Amino acid sequence: MQKLLENVSRTIRRYDMFRHGDAVLAGVSGGADSVALLQVLIAVAPEFSLRIGIAHLNHCMRGEESDRDAEFVRSLAKQLNLPYYIESADVRAYSRGNRLSAEEAGRELRYAFYERIAGQYGYERIALGHHADDNAELVLMYLLRGSGTSGLSGIPPVRGRQIVRPLIGVSRSEIRDFLTANRLAYVSDASNADTKFLRNRIRHELIPLLISSYNPKIVESLNRLSSILRSEDEWMDDNISLLSDSCISDTADGKTVLSVPDTLCLAAQRRMIRKAVSRIKGNLRRISYSHIEALSELLHKEQENGSLDLPDGIRGERIGNKLVFSKTAGRNLPAVRPVFEYILNEPGTVFIKEIAARVSVSESDMKICDSGNPQCAFFDRNAVSFPITVRNFRPGDRFSPLGAGGTQKVKKYFINKKIPGEERRICPILVSGGKIIWIAGHRSDESVKVTPETKTRLKAELFLA
């Protein structure tokens, strides 16, 4: 116990997480990591004169288990005589309404809840229970996705001065030993063992394989890598900030103008574009490598005009040798119907620049299921033939909605589902062998459904701007 507390104390001091007399709101799910976090905060509280409170958001995703977790946290807070704040949120409804995965929706609602409670009740810091293994898993996940230095930097020990992670230098095994030695109870989430989720497969399959066959200290190595890249990423960002003062400006009507010197290397140009987008948008959430590349291409093409719509109602427009960013009214949808058509000759990913979205088609493990995610569909591999055409809606389109029986005009389907006209115009449609197999984000066709006889599957995903 003493070794872990000394480790945490060093981490707190190294990253200047707390100031004397801080009020700290601990995010407590009831799981092992958050219970350990809470007990550690209580142990170091005298050293930093901390005032501690507990926050728990019930995601209502696991029925009685979710309610059980909330009640556990309530009981723990009362036992420790600490102030607590427990609320519930309909994560599924928020996920559907904002076209987010359940994980993304839960994270957004959770962080918004923490920040609101902290502001309302005067907590200077929000402490979360992420640890070294969490960071290693995230770095591996971003590596598999082909992320840049920002993603590979992993979980920051401190974010924006308010979010702090005192356990970031502690391993999962150390946390379990700490809980066992102190006979501390916690609740378990069965979904954390479900390997149909990528994060869990990395945790339970990939990392153990790397430890046993490649590097017994892979977790430490990945944490060292993320620390190095985080420092270098911050250094590069600081240098770009020096340039941005002369290259990025704001107009009286709320637009952001970027002028990129031709002498800048490609890496610096990408960072300048990211900084300009962040300036008008307020963050880089949902801004991907594909968006930055599309903006870079827009800036360097011979024709000195054109525009690209980005996530959250941001538009980038080429005017002469500059990129001008603005906030569009309402949702991020073009007023004029963009006509697009792309071909996938084999499993892969296509970026639809007209709507700043991606569609991917890949082979899928029969054990993995992303049920409930409207941006994902599965097909019987033998019922689909390549090439697959990815295009938008055309008059006269028909398909057989899965489970509905019979054929239907796509236009009528859109009307029945009350899908706005502007969304219909940009909705990607996948076509195989001259037949519609998926209205992306909505419904697949009966002809390609997965059955008990299906041997192999294809997985299609839509990544919206």
CATH superfamily of the largest domain: HUPs
Shape assignment? globular
Overall mean pLDDT: 88
CATH fold name of the largest domain: Rossmann fold
Q: Runs with pLDDT <50, length 5+?
A: 330-336
What is the CATH C level class of the largest domain, in words? Alpha Beta
Radius of gyration over all CA atoms, rounded: 25 Å
What is the strand tally?
22
Q: What is the end-to-end distance?
A: 47 Å
Give the DSSP E fraction (strand runs of 2 or more residues): 15-25%
Helical content (DSSP H or I, runs of 4+): 40-55%
Q: How many domains is the backbone divided into?
A: 3
Main sheet strand line-up? 3-2-1-4-6-5
The major pleated sheet works out as: 6 strands, mixed
Structure overview:
The chain is of the alpha+beta class and 465 residues long. It folds into 3 domains: 2-132 and 153-190, 3-Layer(aba) Sandwich (Rossmann fold); 251-327, Uridine Diphospho-n-acetylenolpyruvylglucosamine Reductase, domain 3; 341-463, 3-Layer(bba) Sandwich (Phenylalanyl-tRNA Synthetase, Chain B, domain 3). Helices cover 41% and strands 21% of the residues. The chain has a 6-stranded mixed sheet, with helices on both faces. It has a 5-stranded antiparallel sheet with strand order 7-8-11-10-9. It has a 5-stranded antiparallel sheet with strand order 12-16-19-20-21, with no helix packed on it. A hairpin with a 2-residue loop joins strand 19 and strand 20 (435-439). Helix 2 (32-48) crosses helix 8 (172-181), helix 4 packs across helix 5 (102-121) and helix 6 crosses helix 10. The longest helix is centred in the middle third of the chain and has 30 residues, at 218-247. The two termini are 47 Å apart.
